[in-house]
Amino acid sequence: MNQSIAAGQSRDSERHRSAPRHRALKALLGLAAVAAPFLSLAGFARSAPAPARIARTQNVADSARLHYVSSPGSQLFEEGAATGGLPGKVKVWLNIGATVTGSFTIYASGWSISGHGTGMLHGTGTFASFGGTMTISHGAGRFAHAHGHGGFYGTINRRTYAATVQTTGNLNY
Question: What CA–CA distance (Å, rounded) separates 154 from 149?
Fold first, then answer.
């Protein structure tokens, strides 16, 4: 009987020593059960954050000498070569009234930038000038996320419709 008492005491002391570990394990499992509806561990592991895109800013000043191509409706369609910070071929659609409004796209090898501008027209003779603001709204290629703003200036020959346009400003991409 001494052996059975000793064996019983041994089992009780083992249970007594493992009780804190057992309680800690139960608490951890209970916490996981409570948190499971709020956390999808499988989904969390699969959804890695998107890599950060480095934003760049460039101060740009471009000029373009444009020649008249056509006038569909009340718009003048002109094109030419842009020189400056973003050299390339430029296409411009202009509406000329008390204000000049226009949209433009500059094209180069593998990229393009588009935007629009508006400015007040000055002068009543053959040559008139305008000045105002422009916004870069989108791009493609390396400028896929392009946006920006700046100045929109130029001159127009009312007889030949030849125009010169300058843009200055900040380009973010």
Answer: 16
Count of CB atoms situated within 10 Å of the CB of 55: 8
- Determine the CATH number of domain 57-172: 2.40.350
Q: Where are the beta strands (DSSP E) in 3-146?
A: 57-70, 76-84, 88-96, 99-108, 111-122, 127-140
Whole-model pTM above 0.85?
no
10-residue mean pLDDT series, the chain (173 residues)? 52 56 54 47 52 79 96 91 96 94 95 97 94 97 95 95 95 94
| Distance of alpha carbon 95 from alpha carbon 57, whole angstroms | 30
Q: Using H for helix, E for strand and C for coil, what is the string for 70-109?
A: ECCCCCEEEEEEEEECCCEEEEEEEEECCEEEEEEEEEEC
φ, ψ (nearest 5 deg) of residue 87: -70, 145
Cβ atoms of 168 and 154 closer than 8 Å = no
Domain-wise residue ranges, the chain: 2-46, 57-172
How far is it, in rounded angstroms, from Cα 108 to Cα 40? 47
Tokens matching residue 90: 């430029």
Among the listed residues 146, 157, 59, 46, the one whose alpha carbon sits nearest the alpha carbon of residue 105: 146
Whether the CB-CB separation of 114 and 82 falls below 8 Å is answered with no
Rounded Cα distance between 138 and 115, Å, is: 7
